Amino acid sequence: MRPIATTRSAAGIPTGLLAVWWVLASEVVIFGGLLGSYIMYRLAHDAWAVQAANTNMWIGAFNTFVLLTSSLTAVLAHQAAEHGDGKLAAKRLYYTCIGAATFIAVKAFEWTTEISHGMTISSNTFWSFYYTAAGLHALHVIAGAILMMYVAADAAKGRELHRVELIGIYWHFVDIVWIFLFPLLYIAK
Amino acid sequence: MSDQATHADAHHHVNYVRIWQILLGLLVVSVLGPMIGIKIVTLMTAFGIAVVKAYLVAKNFMHLNVQPRYVVYLLGTTLVFVMLFFAGAAPDVMKPAGDNWRKPYVEPVPSHDAPHH
User: Which of A22, A86, A124, B80 is the most exposed place for a label (fewest CB within 10 A)?
Assistant: First the structure.
């Protein structure tokens, strides 16, 4: 018996796809509220520019490159799934997971350096926002990568290929969040 | 089924590698822009380009343009809520004083000898 997420489309799209859009709608409020708060404080406190100068723009730019590239492999995986090629879709999803692992490894290096220089989550409000926003985003990257490996394992066997699109949409959203975090945390100094 | 076919056809017209190349080009501009040192150029290249990049990803990678219209309204509604939150909270956060309130907290000015890397 096929799951209801793939067979029912009372809203004009498969229920699984609709569920992903609902999840993302709630994520817009979560990240939007966080980023909105950051912008308010950043505009109100010029002193934050001094703190923001300690973030490394090149590391942020490299991670942006990694996420944009992983978004490309995710959408190419979706394209392969649409053609019914589960093995190719799985391969491209694994490439996306490698992108996620690279992103997290770079983040770990970056945070280790910053923490060793005394810039911790409790240093001041700027660093509290920095670690909260980037940390919440990193958690989404990790969760997405874990789900993607699960979806890829099924796709490689030609099963549940519709899920390739669903995890891809989630991944592109994570990419979009980073597209806004990058200038806020790394460029506006 | 015909809806799904139309949906899939719309995907096939997109050259994903080309979109990715444009996104990388925009990334380079957003990194180089602030190096000019003019505030308005920094704002335009950093945040203006972020909006363009997000639009490109949403339209071409998430295929938001071929989703039912109510999906766009759903996401748009949540964005409106975020803006309402901003409009409601910003006066309190950003104004240090007013007729009916005082804000005794002052963000400490950090020392300038903080390590840079």
Answer: B80
The region, left, alpha or beta by phi > 0 then psi within -120 to 50, assigned to residue A18 is: alpha
CB spacing of B114 vs A119 below 8 angstroms? yes
A187 to chain B, closest Cα gap in Å = 7
Consecutive H or E run containing B78 = helix B69-94
Q: In this complex, do A79 and B24 lie within 8 Å of one another by their Cβ atoms?
A: no
Three-state DSSP class for A178?
helix
Torsion sign, CA atoms B36, B41, B47, B51: negative
pTM: 0.88
CB-CB under 8 Å, B78 with A45: no
Residue B102, beta-bridge partner list:
B97
Q: Which CATH architecture has domain A4-187?
A: Up-down Bundle (1.20)
CA nearest B59: which of B77, B72, B50?
Answer: B72
Interface of B with A in 25-54 (CB under 8 A): 27, 30-31, 34, 42, 46-47, 49-50, 53-54
How confident is the model over B9-45, as pLDDT tens digits?
556 578 999 999 999 999 999 999 888 888 888 888 8
| Cβ distance of B16 and A72 shorter than 8 Å | yes
Size of interface A-B (CB pairs under 8 A): 146
Helix axes A125-156, A162-182, angle to 10 degrees: 160
User: What is the DSSP code (8-state) at residue A183?
Assistant: I
What ipTM was estimated for this complex? 0.91
CB atoms within 10 A of CB B28: 12
Domain range annotation of chain A: 4-187
